Amino acid sequence: MIFENSQLKLAYDFVQFTNRSIFLTGKAGTGKTTFLHQLKKISPKRMAVVAPTGVAAINAGGVTIHSFFQMSFGPQIPDGILSNKGNTISHLKPSPAAKRFNKEKIKLIQSLDLLVIDEISMVRSDMLDAIDEVLRKYKNRSKPFGGVQLLMIGDLHQLSPVVKDDEWILLRDYYDTFYFFGSRALQKAGFVTIELTHIFRQTDKYFIDLLSKVRTKAVNNEVLEEINKRYIPGFKPKDEEGYIILTTHNSNAAEINNKKLSENKNTSFFAKARIDGDFPPYIFPTETNLELKKGAQVMFVKNDSSREKLYYNGKIGKITLIEEDIVYVKCPGDLAEIPVNIVDWQNVKYSLDESTKEVKENVIGTFMQYPLKLAWAITIHKSQGLTFEKAIIDAQASFAFGQVYVALSRCRTLEGLVLSSPITINGIKTDDTITEFTKKSHEEEPNESELEASKILFQQTLLLELFDFTGLKKLFYSLGRALDENKNILDPVMISEVYQIENEFIGKIYSVADRFKIQLNQLFAQNEAPEENENIQERIKKAATYFSEIIESLLIPFFESYILETDNKAVRVQVLEYISKLQLVAFVKKSILKNCIDGFKTLELLKVQANAEIDFNTIQKPKKSEKIKSTKNIPHSELYQELKAWRKTVAEENNAKAFMIMHQKHLMDLMDRMPRNFEELSMVKGFGQKRIQHYGSDILSIINEYCNDQGIEAEQTEILEPEIKIKKAKVNSKKLSFEMFNSGKTIAEIAAERGFSPLTIEGHLAHYVSLGELEVEQFVDSEKIKKISDFFVDHNTSSLTAAKEFFGDNVSYSDLKFVLNSLRKNQVNPE
Fold first, then answer.
1. 826 contact partners, CB below 8 Å, separation of at least 6
2. Each residue's pLDDT tens digit, 360-390
3. Cβ neighbours for 102, distance < 8 A, ≥ 6 positions apart
4. Farthest-apart Cα atoms in the chain, separation
5. How many Cα atoms are found within 13 Å in the side-chain-facing hemisphere of 523?
6. Is the separation of the CB atoms in 588 and 609 below 8 Å?
7. How far apart are CA 364 and CA 824, in angstroms?
């Protein structure tokens, strides 16, 4: 194992084999950052790394919290959180974290197993709750952080979150503390604290003990006296000694560096950075216009990526020579000068590889410059994470918790540290909230036994969730309620089909799974990891086979073929949303269950689950031409589909929506009443004089022809013109169209002259094709005639609806009608 240190291995095992969130902490120099870089290389979990500041994000090889989660920099007030005083504050707006993400970002979030937050000490509690809101929105609504595991890395005794007074006024009614552990989502999720104690930066035990007392505010007069022995009034080292000044404010550091550089009389060398792509100024690692001179004291701001490892981030040296594109730097203790070339920093953006389903780091921008900056002085804030051999510390004006500790702990040795002003008790600021939290964490620090228990619990939880179908049951209930509330405008058969499949789901899946979970819980009493228990594995294999087959044969086909008939847009959106959710849950369940047919493996299950959620969005559904939808349970289904086809054709001819021609509810009313004449049609709701004038003849023609074909008896009433034209002499409408066609008029001319739609005229003429008085070749080309004829014969059907679904837009409704009537002629009058 790469982590030989027992604490580092414990941390890795908690990350790898459990879903517990982890706070990895430790004194400065204990290897927290090294752990992160190693974890990124070897962990199979799909992770993203974020940090509160641009510089911290670049150092960690990640992105900022604000960019990844699209947050503003102000206070984040998540939805649904009451104040600590039990009331709500109405003037506060919901967190902007609920902002919509693009599809790529959503897929990325859905794939995450692990979110690493570096420099967690600088993250406010409200920011963590805003992260929770986003992760739950796009991954799993019922779990803190959407079920994503958190690895939080940092030292609370170092730099604290930046919280302005006016921001805390807004937040204090919601949070007991602004530190990350005040997050309500994190408190609900729970986490383990693992503190690294082996210090790699310092080796002097005496200095380590002093730093530890400063870190925990265990400073008495004796400790203070020892530290202040390093106070040397008026200390002015020679430039070649390589001291750097750590000060509290940016203005102080800039003033010192500019003054020192101006005193240097050598010629200036200017290096302008090259920036490609997206690399915003707030994460620049050094100056874009870098002014250097021979003799200038500089600090490396990047680790050497070459095999030689000649320099590291924070190493101090002096420029000895500048020639062409190389700057030579001599560092104290080194025998040779270091040749420094231009290097690049990368700004990464996370994305999901659609083929491998792995989280990828895509370089979206680069910053190219010498890895140097003037280093006679630097702020304590920017020194966090750096290591110096020699430093002069000016912490007299320290203003933040942990600032003195950060400054002192930057040095490898006590001897390399010089104070420009004495340290006072008041200057060592440590928040009592942190002290209390640290004490409690020490008392609850996990061990190998807790790790093993967490591993077992994680595996058991995954299995119980896998065989829990409550989510599907709730979605079925919601879908049924939505259909029932709108039953007056929906096809009753469509509603009954949902209830039928729900009942089958309850009997064959939900009830069986409930009994199986009882068996699992009994097996779990053995307190052994399910992965390692043969009895549990065998039961899982059998159950996975059963449930995956039922889902694949029962639920998946139903959801894919379900037809929603409604013109009400709101109802359509609501019902289809439930159908889509049911499809997603069923698809994910099926995918995981099929993976478990050969046995349960934790990491494989997590991977399949994440992949399934992504794959669902790219499922190719069968084309209509590939399936013949059954409508046998709908009363007069043939007529129903013919009227729908007519409505669609008329809508397309008039460049209108189908519901503008006739609402779905009115179509259902037609099926109930089956009007055979204008008087009966006028009694159908929605059919006023204007609609009857425009469409009445078409509708009555379709209904009467259907009734005649099906032998439905009714008083034979000639289809009259609309009421506005009733005074005209009664005529045989079909015969008149037939005579006009034989006189040489086109279908379009007949329709225009008679005030009918072309579809109605085609219906009139199709009647005469069935009588053998017109030939089908006059209306349909021979190739289509053969294809359509073959369909009706091969499928042993006369269903125009089935044929239209099979051929799609390749044939028209009229083509089908003409060919079908031609076949009927041949059946009656065989040659």
1. none
2. 778 889 999 999 999 899 888 778 767 888 8
3. none
4. 122
5. 23
6. yes
7. 67
**H/E run at residue 340:** strand 338-340
One-letter identity of residue 680: E
Determine whether 780 is exposed, middle or buried from the number of CB atoms within 10 Å of its CB (0-12, 13-18, 19+). buried
Spatial neighbors of 180 by CB under 8 A, at least 6 apart, are 120, 121, 123, 124, 125, 127, 128, 152, 161, 186
* Close Cβ partners of 209 (under 8 Å, ≥ 6 residues apart): none
Length of the chain as a residue count: 831
- The pair of structure tokens assigned to 107 is 């897929």
For 531, counting Cβ atoms within 10 Å of its Cβ (0-12 exposed, 13-18 middle, 19+ buried), the class is middle
Average pLDDT over residues 405-420: 87
State the Cα–Cα distance between residues 1 and 15, nearest whole angstrom: 14
Residue 398 pLDDT > 60, yes or no? no
Name the token pair of 531. 């992965």
Q: Which two tokens stand for residue 372?
A: 């140097």
**pTM as predicted:** 0.60
What does the pLDDT look like over 425-434, one tens digit per residue? Answer: 776 766 778 8
Nearest to 168 by CA among 157, 156, 159, 176: 176
The C-alpha R_g of the chain, in whole angstroms, comes to 38
Structure-token pair, residue 254:
């800039």
pLDDT (0 to 100) of residue 597 = 94
| Residue carrying the six token digits 């101090």 | 316
Find the mean pLDDT for residues 220-232.
87
Determine the average pLDDT of the residues in 524-528: 87
Can you give the pLDDT at residue 328?
96
pLDDT above 70 for 402: no
Q: Is 440 exposed, middle or buried (0-12, 13-18, 19+ CB in 10 A)?
A: exposed
Please report, for residues 513, 582, 704, the alpha-carbon distance to residue 587 in angstroms, rounded to integers and kept in the order given: 17, 8, 45
The confidence score (pLDDT) of residue 628 equals: 36
One-letter identity of residue 265: K
Tell me, letter by letter, the H, E, C secondary structure of 447-466.
Answer: CHHHHHHHHHHHHHHHHHHH
**Does pLDDT of 98 surpass 50?**
no
DSSP helix, strand, coil percent of the chain (3-state; round to 5): 50, 10, 35
What's the Cα-to-Cα distance from 732 to each of 267, 335, 701, 713, rounded to whole Å?
Answer: 107, 113, 12, 20
Contact assessment for residue 367 and residue 344, using Cβ atoms and an 8 Å cutoff: yes
Position 625 pLDDT exceeds 60: no
Evaluate whether 440 touches 432 at the Cβ level (below 8 Å): no
Cα–Cα distance for residue pair 362/366, rounded to 1 Å: 11
The pLDDT of residue 430: 64
Average pLDDT over residues 486-511: 85
Alpha carbon separation from 387 to 200, 301, 411, 682 (Å, rounded): 11, 11, 6, 90
Half-sphere exposure in the Cβ direction for 604 (13 Å, CA)? 12
Sequence-distant (6+) residues with CB within 8 A of 518 are: none
Residue type, 207: F
List the 149-153 sheet strands across, edge first.
63-64, 47-51, 114-117, 149-153, 21-26, 191-196
Angle between helices 637-653 and 813-828 (to 10 degrees): 140
Q: State the Cα angle at 370 between 368 and 371, rounded to 5°.
A: 100
Question: Counting runs of H as helices and runs of E as strands, what totals does the chain give?
Answer: 33, 20
Spatial contact of 283 and 347, defined as CB atoms under 8 Å apart:
yes
711 contacts: CB under 8 Å, gap ≥ 6: none
- Nearest CA to 379 out of 357, 406, 352 is that of 406
Distance CA 450, CA 190 (A): 14
Spatial separation of the C-alpha atoms in residues 173 and 257, rounded to whole Å:
43
Q: Whose structure tokens read 């070897």? A: 42
Burial of 658 (0-12, 13-18, 19+ CB in 10 A): middle
563: exposed, middle or buried (Cβ count in 10 Å: 0-12, 13-18, 19+): exposed
